[in-house]
Amino acid sequence: MRRLVYLACALLMIAQPRLSLAQGSGPTPELANRQLADPAKEKAASQVMHALRCIQCQGQSIADSDAPMAATMRAEVRQQIADGKKPDAIRQWMIERYGEWVSFEPDMKGSGLLLWAAPLLLLLLALFMARGLFRRKS
Amino acid sequence: MIAETGLAALWLAAAMALLQLVGGLTLIRGEGRLTPVIKPAALIQGALCVVSFASLMWLFYTTDLSVLLVASNSHIDKPLIFKLAGTWGNHEGSMLLWVSVLSLSGAAIALLEKRIDTRTLQATLAVQAFVALGFFAFLLFSSNPFERLFPAPVEGAGLNPLLQDIGLAFHPPTLYIGYVGLSVAFSFAVAAMLTRQVGPAFARAMRPWVLGAWIFLTVGITAGSYWAYYELGWGGWWFWDPVENASLMPWLAATALLHSVSVLATRNALRAWTIMLALVAFAMSMAGTFLVRSGILTSVHAFAVDPERGSFILALMLMYTSLAFLVFATRIGTVKQGEPFQIISREGGIVANNIFLSVILAIVLIGTLYPLAAEAMGDKISVGPPYFNKATVPIALLLMIALLLGPLLRWRRDELKRYKYWLVAFFAVSLWTGVAIWRFVPGVGIFPILGLALSLALAIAAWVPLKGRNLLRTPLPVFGMVIAHFGLAVSVFGMAAESGFSRETLTALAPGETTKVADWQVKLDDVRPVVGDNWVATEGQLVARNKHKNFVLRPQSRQFYRPEQQTSEAALLTRWNGQLYAVIAQPDENGDGRWQVRLWWKPFVTFIWFGGLLVAFGGAIALLGRMFRRPKKPAVNKWAQA
């Protein structure tokens, strides 16, 4: 049994570089805790990182987490920003890999539409309810 | 023996609550034979809860490991203050604290409240006992804090190291007093509906209790935010995390209630709405307790979670809330909406306050529960800071605009043109600030700009209600209001400055190397190991330099044992205009002797919490004024009568 496990590990280790080759060059792990040189790009990356959930932790964004998984994802975000990818495309890329759960900002479509419409609807509802309180000017 | 005493006291307290409730029921049936028992029972119930809670504290103080709760949450090596704080740093203990505060507030009503008629007071105590009974049942049947463990272990399991912090020793009790204090408003509201006494007298009696609970909530949230800021080590001060939302929602409801209750007290208007808010506020408290205690939502703060117990609290919450709304629905027909008023009036301003706060509350509630609803439908989605910020900040800004003028207006009816110079002044200040930032500091978002602009206008506007008053004869609550509103301006200024102007440097430094953040030169002098009571740490010595002045910061990366966990202890350098926030993390991956260092310069960030404390301080001043009100001079001359 143990041998099988070793074998599986060994196979994985061999397979790993090929996997990353197939994905194109992966991010440099240093980017997890290093800023991009260009402040504008770093700012864009930071916004993306704050809007992505660390899926290993409880309710933290990947920008605010010490978890290894979050570090990998930060590196990925910075790398893709450095490669000139648009923030929204990166978000979609993450959602494709980790599911809707990873994004802190639900899309404005389908069930998310109601969520985004809620503030305006609530405000209108409240104003409608309050109108009876006021006395008309005579 | 102590554990058994505590448990017995808890059972007896529950019996007292039952007695109180039965007494109250005879009241409703009209005969009122058992009503004399209500007041003494409330007092004894409070005393018994004190005994019970003190027993548990004693068990934690002596680290009695034959008690399951102590064994699984404490450790013989822990510093004394955290042994004591361990009493409420866990599920059972915190629920015992919850019930004790509930009973004590019941006892306090019985002892202190002299402003409402006897029947309403008795009904209030009965409702309070009814609420307490549910939570006694919860403790005794599913969360007994005094359960024994046999055989007793040699050492305990320890307390989550994140919780071993002085701020956290006092944060949960503060919030709980606030949460549970709202139960008093709830009981008052239900009782007043039952005895048909909804009116100014009832509002004046309820107001100090709401104010008191609200002060504790304000302090609790402020302290919790600061705790998250320095303890979690990433420089954020509000994460829109479910547990934070759970504390924010009762606060929003209580803030709205605080304002509407003063309309009811002064002008006998907004009756049904005030009752509604009192019910909602306590429902939100229970929902908060449920969300925190059930573990149904994942959260940075969810330390002690258990789904089964969650369903018990959920059942209690649904029962109390639905019963309360049932009373509301059947009795509200008899409660008239009250005196009319025009839109441009003090009442109108407070209605605006209530509308905006309620909408924010609803957004937070929907956003917090949305993932649950979606999951039930088979969608796993997250709703986080980007949504909450975009959805609530615009409404909070509208609230601030309303606040510029609201406190100046007269009751019943007023004219905007009386305030045209003030309006122009506020507008000019806001516009000037906004344009200056937009023009000279590139890349600041629209929300921070608007926040700064409006907070400066509000910082002035907050004091205007004092204009033309004789300050010596101004009632304390007016000062309280002015201070609280000014505190809000200070807090919003801090929030906007922090989110608009923070500077961040993430780097790796070898000892001797220097980096830069904002105007600071920061040098890593040395890294060395440090040993604490129940942890070991790597401590970095950073020297921050700003215009010829040196400051030393010592952030640590701590490794706790029992339970094993790694935490970052940030080092903060506080200047009047902001904080330098330094964190040292693991050695760099390359293994070249560098250390990961995270630095932030956060301008005016401390204003957030100073502002919060000012708000609470304003509340305290107002509370003093409400409690020790100078008796009004009798309208008729005494001598003339005689």
Give the end-to-end Cα distance of chain A, rounded to a whole number of Å: 90 Å
- One letter per element, helices H and strands E, the order of chain A comes to HHHHH
Radius of gyration of chain B: 27 Å
Shape descriptor of chain A reads elongated
The residue fraction in helices of chain A comes out at 55-70%
Distance between the termini of chain B: 65 Å
Q: In terms of structural class, how would the helical and strand content of chain B be classed?
A: alpha+beta
Fraction of residues of chain B in helices?
Answer: 55-70%
Task: Please sum up the structure shown.
The complex is a heterodimer of chains A (138) and B (642). Chain A is mostly helical. Chain A has 5 helices and no strands.
Please give a structural write-up:
The complex is a heterodimer of chains A (138) and B (642). By secondary structure, chain A is an all-alpha fold. Chain A has helices at 2-22, 39-50, 68-82, 87-98, 111-130. Chain A folds into 2 domains: 26-105, Cytochrome C biogenesis protein (Helicase, Ruva Protein, domain 3, Orthogonal Bundle); 112-138. Chain A contains 5 helices and no strands. Chain A starts with a helix and ends in an 8-residue tail after the last helix. In chain A, 28% of the residues are buried. Chain B is of the alpha+beta class and 642 residues long. Among the domains of chain B are: 1-155; 419-501 and 606-627, no CATH class; 503-603. Helices cover 60% and strands 12% of the residues of chain B. Chain B has helices spanning 2-28, 38-61, 68-73, 80-85, 91-112, 118-142, 166-194, 200-231, 242-267, 271-294, 307-331, 346-376, 385-405, 420-440, 446-461, 476-501, 606-627, 638-641; strands at 503-509, 514-517, 520-531, 535-546, 549-553, 556-560, 565-569, 571-575, 578-587, 595-603. In chain B, α8 (200-231) runs antiparallel to α9 and α14 runs antiparallel to α15. The termini of chain B are far apart. The chains are: A mainly alpha (138), B alpha+beta (642). At the A-B interface, α2 and α5 of A face α12, α13 and β1 of B.
